[in-house]
């Protein structure tokens, strides 16, 4: 009697979810629900790091507060972070997922440094795409991606449950795009439909490795893949965003790279645009 084939997601053994409490009001985290349901689907261990931003006298804007006021704020933020961790542990237990939680209280930028270090010990990290243009969520995504050597799934608001039936691979022929597709292989193999999307002029698409040449590689791994070359239109990001909607994508896979050496972390234009608003969770790798 032959044994059933293992699930394509069986290679994912541990998932890290990172959140950070920045204000006195708890903000909803789609990453926690997404990471929990992903861990359940993969039969993986879940770790939730719910950190609080411990205020420091070195921050210039804190000059208006006295020491006692800062201590009160620290305790409130710590309590919120611990509440998130406890609730996550309870939800995981109810779902039958083995879960470890931690609620460190750290000054900035130690929150993002700790997350990147923890990310190296997990197969992938799940983080929120924050609602603001510049926030701690964005810093956590950048640091984890560029300093952990592991992929990141960045989850926009409202995507509280893992799904990967229909996936778009943003393809530009770069090493980063190839690495992202390889790292995302467990999800690509388990998907019902995967579409390689190349955006640009005809010359730009064929200057790099065309998607049609990359598709056989995915097909040999058992991926149900198709190819779609699209004109740039208004911009690469807007064309990709529109196609993700038409394809009803559950996930978008793209490579990330440093676009300007003058900054330690700086995404290329397409990724940066998606981190300001994505129609689906982003699987990012470099």
Entry summary:
The protein is of the alpha/beta class.
| CATH homolog superfamily of the largest domain | HUPs
The dominant shape is globular
Number of domains: 2
Unreliably modeled segments: 260-266
Structural class: alpha/beta
The CATH topology annotation of the largest domain reads as Rossmann fold
Report strand %.
15-25%
Tell me the CATH architecture of the largest domain.
3-Layer(aba) Sandwich
Terminal CA distance: 42 Å
Radius of gyration: 20 Å
Total number of β-strand segments?
Answer: 11
Top-tier CATH class of the largest domain: Alpha Beta
Mean pLDDT: 86
Helix-strand pattern, N to C?
EHEHEEHEHEEHHEHHEHEHE
Give a short account of the largest sheet.
Answer: 11 strands, mixed
Organism: Methylobacterium gregans
InterPro entries: Universal_stress_UspA, UspA
Protein name: UspA domain-containing protein
Domain UspA: 165-284
Structure description:
This protein has 286 residues and is an alpha/beta fold. The chain is 40% helix and 21% strand. The chain is built from ten helices and eleven strands. The protein has helices at 30-42, 67-95, 110-119, 136-148, 175-183, 185-190, 202-207, 211-220, 236-247, 269-275, and strands at residues 14-21, 45-53, 99-102, 105-106, 124-128, 152-155, 166-170, 193-199, 225-230, 251-255, 282-285. Helix 4 links the parallel strand 5 and strand 6. Belongs to the universal stress protein A family.
């Amino acid at each position: 009697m032959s044994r059933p084939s293992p699930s394509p997601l069986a290679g994912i053994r541990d998932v890290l979810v990172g959140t950070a409490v920045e204000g006195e009001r708890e903000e909803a985290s789609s990453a926690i629900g997404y990471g929990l349901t992903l861990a359940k689907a993969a039969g993986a261990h879940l770790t939730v790091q719910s950190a609080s931003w411990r205020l420091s006298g070195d921050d210039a804007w804190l000059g208006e507060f006295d020491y006692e006021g800062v201590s009160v704020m620290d305790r409130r933020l710590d309590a919120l972070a611990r509440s998130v961790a406890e609730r996550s542990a309870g939800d995981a237990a109810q779902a039958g997922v083995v879960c470890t939680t931690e609620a460190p209280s750290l000054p900035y930028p130690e929150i993002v440094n700790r997350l990147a270090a923890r990310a190296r010990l997990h197969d992938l990290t799940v983080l929120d795409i924050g609602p603001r243009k510049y926030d701690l969520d964005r810093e956590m995504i950048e640091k984890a991606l560029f300093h952990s050597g592991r992929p990141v799934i960045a989850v926009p608001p409202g995507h509280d449950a893992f799904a990967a039936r229909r996936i778009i691979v943003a393809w530009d022929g770069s090493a980063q795009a190839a690495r992202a597709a390889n790292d995302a292989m467990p999800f690509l193999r388990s998907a019902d439909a995967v579409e390689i999307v190349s955006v640009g002029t005809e010359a730009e698409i064929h200057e790099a490795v065309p998607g049609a040449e990359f598709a056989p590689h995915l097909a040999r791994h058992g991926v149900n893949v198709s190819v779609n070359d699209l004109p740039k239109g208004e911009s690469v990001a807007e064309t990709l965003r529109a196609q993700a909607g038409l394809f009803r994508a559950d996930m978008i896979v793209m490579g990330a790279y440093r676009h300007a050496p003058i900054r330690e972390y700086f995404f290329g234009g397409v990724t940066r645009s998606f981190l300001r608003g994505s129609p689906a969770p982003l699987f990012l790798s470099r």
